[in-house]
């Protein structure tokens, strides 16, 4: 049996599917062309069909199941009520400036995904990716958090693949009470704390990307002195970024066995930007202990005239060779610009002359 349709032609690609928070028998179908259908799975027909003249990218329900929000290709968000589906009851273009003549705001980049999460004692959270205005093409990929009238734009280091809002309740028909957003980037995974007004990120317990700058050489130390890993870690902690969330990493589950071997191992990676990273490789996962920037030693070249331009390479600070004596803790680095730097380990940063 084929269900009757009230459209003569197929509306095109489906971009969204979800059931109503109040009724699992009602399926919300969003089509790319701007059509949205609330389909009754029991009677196999459309309860309502609405249309908006901008392409849809995603849809998010209000927990009561009476309203939903669509994100569109012109950087707009539309709010719809099931009781009056002829037109949206609210249209917002979060990053669009309203034109002086009062006409429609300038169009922005598409809002690729929106999540609409409610709170019992405050305004709902509207969280979306994309949607920035076209007049700032150099801006990085971003996640926008709207809470009441406050709009916060979080710029990311890599393009956003997807994001998910973590809520206090697993049930879609209750007040959501969001507390964090997990953002999957092309080369990273970050978690944003929504419970603090400045939205700090959680400190990530796992290293996500060893190759944030290309690895140009590596060194491996097996069975190194047992105090070396704690010492490197204690120095590395001092250089960590400040301003992380003070809460525990909110993702749990999964387990790994500790490595079979009992001796400590360290892997050292030298990178194209002149940085050197020390990793604890004793367990299954690599844990970064300390990062050293050799490029700090050099003055950045001012490119004037032909002579300096000839010297400039793609990666002038790239690390090419490393040697570390774990007993004396003297570390030697040779780089692409034909230099050698000798470091002696110290708990406090000092510059010393080495004869």
Give a brief rundown of this model.
The protein is mostly beta strands and 355 residues long.
Describe this entry's structure for a reader:
The chain is mainly β and 355 residues long. The chain has two helices and 22 strands. It has a four-stranded antiparallel β-sheet, with no helix packed on it. Strand 5 (56-61) and strand 6 (67-72) form a beta hairpin.
Notable characteristics:
355 residues; mainly beta; 4-stranded antiparallel β-sheet
* Approximate shape: elongated
- What is the overall pLDDT average? 84
Order of helices and strands: EEEEEEEEEEEEEEEEHEEEHEEE
The helix content is under 10%
Give the end-to-end Cα distance, rounded to a whole number of Å: 89 Å
Contiguous runs where pLDDT drops below 50 for at least 5 residues: 1-5, 306-311
Beta-strand share of residues: 35-45%
Sheet with the most strands, sense and barrel status: 4 strands, antiparallel
List the helices and strands and how they pair.
Layout: E1 14-19, E2 26-31, E3 35-40, E4 45-51, E5 56-61, E6 67-72, E7 77-81, E8 90-92, E9 111-117, E10 125-130, E11 142-147, E12 150-155, E13 160-167, E14 178-185, E15 188-193, E16 215-222, H1 228-238, E17 265-271, E18 275-280, E19 287-293, H2 305-311, E20 319-325, E21 330-335, E22 340-344
Organism: Sphaerodactylus townsendi
Protein name: Syntaxin-binding protein 5-like
